[in-house]
Specification:
By secondary structure, the protein is α+β, with helices and mostly antiparallel strands. It has a domain of 36 residues. Helix content is 54%, strand content 17%. The strands form 2 sheets. A 3-stranded antiparallel beta sheet has the order 3-5-4. Strands 1-2 form a two-stranded antiparallel ribbon. Helix 1 runs antiparallel to helix 4 and helix 3 crosses helix 4. One of its GO terms (molecular function) is DNA-binding transcription factor activity.
Length: 139
């Protein structure tokens, strides 16, 4: 599992006379997750993953399917390759793409851990609201 502190905010207290505090994002870094989430943040790249889930495809056929130029499709495929989600192989003049062997287990684990965190926070909020309603009806 990834570092549980990833993505937390830290507060930097400046001298009182300055009159403000500064929140900044702590960078714990998880390059594989960063690359995967960046690659999957684009709808076209998610579509490419879906398409390759049905079978291997050439960059030309993917470009046609997504109505893109070859150059544009190559750039999308390169992003997916850097993340390890897609593997390409050139045979003659045709570059064929297929899904990479690496699954999305680490990403799913990160999402599940944070889903549970949010769920617990919302349950706690529901309890507070219920208590407030109960106190309001007792008056």
């Amino acid at each position: 599992m990834t570092d549980p502190r990833q993505g937390k905010f830290r507060t930097l207290a400046l001298p009182a006379r300055a009159g403000y505090t500064l929140n900044y994002m702590v960078q714990y870094g998880s390059p594989p997750l960063d690359l995967s989430f960046a690659a999957l943040s684009d709808a076209t790249r998610r579509g490419i993953i879906d398409q390759l889930g049905q079978g291997n495809a050439s960059i030309t056929s993917l470009a046609d399917k997504f109505q893109m130029t070859l150059t544009g499709m190559k750039k999308h495929v390169q992003v997916l390759e850097r993340a390890g989600l897609v593997v390409t192989q050139k045979v003659g003049r045709v570059r064929t793409c297929r899904l990479g062997k690496r699954g999305l287990e680490a990403e799913a684990e990160w999402i599940e851990a944070h889903r549970k965190l949010f769920e617990a926070r919302f349950e706690a909020l529901d309890e507070i609201i219920s208590e407030m309603k109960q106190e309001g009806s007792d008056d």
